[in-house]
Design brief:
Length: 173
């Protein structure tokens, strides 16, 4: 006989983050209760009117504001934006961008280019090592093997072995 599976629940703040909405702007019944996974899935599939209105008009949380302005969350803070903004406020900033917004957009774009470049570099296959290096790679510090293939002790192993010998001599007196 199997147990009935209990649905996972989350705090309203977690659900608000997953829904990309500003929690204080949600209805009290959403803020006061808990949200199950099934309820969250249903809210994402078929958003009620309050959720559709919040997503359309705001106020929006910082991560949504940053994404719509094409800057980082840190860029918002450097620009003095610490709270939520409505869609109209975001549109006004985007229509007539202040100096800080232009600078942060350039910085954010440069960071994204660098991240893409590094991701592409990691995706490239590494060149093959020459056979001599692969065959005779001496890694003695970690306790691996030397050129001759013999195992070596790491520094910690050597210290422990030295203490054990010293302790044996002292107890033999």
């Amino acid at each position: 006989m199997s147990k009935t599976k209990k649905s996972q629940v989350m705090k309203p703040s977690t659900a608000a983050v997953k829904l990309d909405v500003y929690l204080p702007a949600t209805p009290p019944e959403f803020q006061d209760g808990v949200v199950s996974r099934e309820e969250l899935d249903e809210l994402q599939r078929n958003p009620p009117q309050w959720l559709a209105d919040l997503r359309r008009n705001g106020p929006h949380p910082r991560n949504v504001v940053a994404a719509r302005l094409r800057v980082s969350n840190s860029g918002l803070a450097r620009g003095g934006i610490t709270g939520p903004l409505t869609t109209a406020e975001i549109a006004a900033l985007a229509a007539d961008p202040p100096e800080w917004l232009t600078q942060e957009r350039e910085t954010h774009a440069e960071v994204r280019r660098e991240q893409r470049r590094l991701a592409e570099r990691r995706a490239e296959p590494e060149p093959a090592k020459p056979a001599a290096q692969a065959k005779n790679g001496a890694r003695t510090k970690s306790g691996a093997q030397t050129k001759s293939g013999a195992q070596t002790k790491s520094g910690a192993q050597t210290k422990r072995a030295g203490r054990a010998k010293t302790g044996a001599r002292q107890s033999g007196r």
